[in-house]
Design brief:
Shape: globular
Number of domains: 1
CATH architecture: 3-Layer(aba) Sandwich
Helix content: 25-40%
Strand content: 15-25%
Strand order of the largest sheet: 1-2-3-4-5
Length: 117
C-alpha cells in the first residue's frame, strides 16, 4: 500500500499493525458457505479518520471476490462502506443489494452503542 501500511489476514481477521503502537486495526469476519460476514471493525483512536477502515474492508472484498463469496455487512462501518460505494453493492449477498442500507446502518450503530462499542 502506498501509505506503508500492510493489511494482513488470519482465519478470522484482516488487520493492520502500526509502528507507533502495539494496537492493531482490524476487521473481524467469518465465512459460512458462500458468504463472508463482516462482523466488526476497530481502529485505534489515534489512527481514525485516515482511511484505515476502508483499507480493511477493501482487502476483505478482494478476498471475497477471489473466493466467489458474497458479503453480508453486519458492523456499522461495513454497511457505511457500501453506502459510500454503491458501485460495490454487486458484491453483497442478494438480499442486501437493494436493501435500505441507511436503515441497516442506523440499526447497527444503535446495537453497537448498546454493547459499548
Amino acid at each position: 500500500m502506498g501509505n506503508g501500511l500492510e493489511v494482513k489476514m488470519t482465519r478470522r481477521l484482516f488487520y493492520i499493525s502500526f509502528p507507533d503502537t502495539s494496537e492493531k486495526a482490524f476487521l473481524r469476519y467469518r465465512v459460512e458457505g458462500d458468504r463472508m460476514y463482516l462482523e466488526a471493525t476497530y481502529t485505534p483512536p489515534q489512527h481514525r479518520g485516515k482511511g484505515i477502515g476502508r483499507l480493511l474492508v477493501e482487502a476483505a472484498l478482494k478476498y471475497a471476490e477471489e473466493k466467489g463469496l458474497k458479503i453480508v455487512p453486519i458492523c456499522s462501518y461495513a454497511i457505511y462502506y457500501f453506502i459510500k460505494h454503491p458501485e460495490k453493492r454487486t458484491l453483497l449477498a442478494e438480499e442486501y443489494q437493494n436493501a435500505n442500507l441507511e436503515e441497516l446502518f442506523r440499526k447497527a450503530l444503535e446495537e453497537e452503542k448498546k454493547r459499548g462499542h
